[in-house]
Amino acid sequence: MDSELGPKGVETVCEVCQVELDRISEVAQLTEQDIELLRQPRRRINANIPVRMDDGSIDVFPSFRIQYNGARGPTKGGIRFHPGVDEEEVDELAFLMTLKCAVVDIPFGGAKGGVQVDRKELSVGELERLARAYIREYHDVVGPQSDIPAPDMNTDAQIMAWMRDEYEQVAGHQAPGVITGKPPALGGSEGRNSATSLGGAEILDAFVRHEGLDKSLDIAVQGFGNVGSHLALFLHERGYNIVAVSNAAGGIYDETGLPIPDLFEGYENEQDLFDVDAAELSNDELLTLDVDVLVPAAIEDQITDANMADIRADVVLEMANGPTTPQADQYLADNGVQIIPDILANAGGVTVSYFEWVQNTTNEYWTEETVQEKLRTQMQTAFEDVAARKTEADREKSWREAAYAKSVDAVLTAEGYRSNMPTE
Ligand code: NAD
Question: Could you identify which of 176, 194, 246, 399 might form a hypothetical disulfide with 360, taking C-beta atoms 3.0 to 4.6 angstroms apart as the criterion?
């Protein structure tokens, strides 16, 4: 969408932020002043980064870092490498990071970064030079006490390692807490790899207890990547029946339950998903299966106005970021589907990123068991807070509205104390 001028003549870029704020403003009874505080990121920085390519030429990569709101602490959010990344997308993701950190009550604000690049086109050397150049470009605005990046789409632990190293070379001292998602050998946390999925499993368990259901639920998982494969394994171990999983090439289905431990091992060994004895189905068919719980764990915009009328699951656990469009979200909520929103369901990853930063800051390192125990507590508490918010409401709110209302309240309360405004 093109930029346009908002009510006070200020440029508005992020349409989704505006739509979501309008929705929250009703349920959380926001004032004009509240909306004014939240409708724009605090700071947008961009840079066109020149990088020397292997053939001696120089390519220039547009890039962004957007710090949406830092009232609750240093801003936090990943850096994505993708050809389609733009300011509006990064705005939206930074806004959602602000809410995500607040909903699980970790003392961070929200940010996001991006580089317009097709990672597959770069050699390892070019990738390293781009990662290091990004940090040199944004060195003044990131830091362990100001803004803490992490991996996102097409960035990984190796890239975080280069970025930490580059930051320290410019700073002239060690600063492990400048970035999270690092390899454990370089200050990364144990348990980070499966944290998003463990967090999602805890949220589903808490939901099942809250609704008085039992765990014999049939579940379909779209996207058997890092998040989907670990989640399927955690849920299988807890007694849920995983009947379908998929990747970009399509999916497999067995109504009596798929052999998840074998499939997980196959994923870890980069084997084909279709090597097991099960019926094949397309991703479109998976999304409309008659299951109890549908778990989109692949990419954004999977449940849309094109398929919302065909969704037959009773519950959607959003492990991917933004898998449901606002229109489909409203339609499904009106039809009684309970959607557990991404900012709550997949917040286990950023929670363990926070644990990584705590370990880097205190120089005390925890075992995987300790990390997982702390994560369980944090996720259960977050779910109970959102459930209480939903129950207390004088009219039925969706899980998304309750989660948004809780997090926006937390951000505005912190803003209130900072700016000496009344908090009620
Ligand atoms: P991944 O790349 O490891 O896995 C993605 C999976 O989705 C792969 O199996 C891929 O084949 C599949 N896929 C891609 N396009 C698809 C399509 N059109 N239809 C069906 N399947 C498709 O990524 P991941 O780390 O597992 O992340 C998955 C989602 O979870 C993303 O939306 C990501 O933003 C979100 N998320 C991840 C984390 C994390 O810690 N990794 C944290 C929060 C949110």
Answer: 176
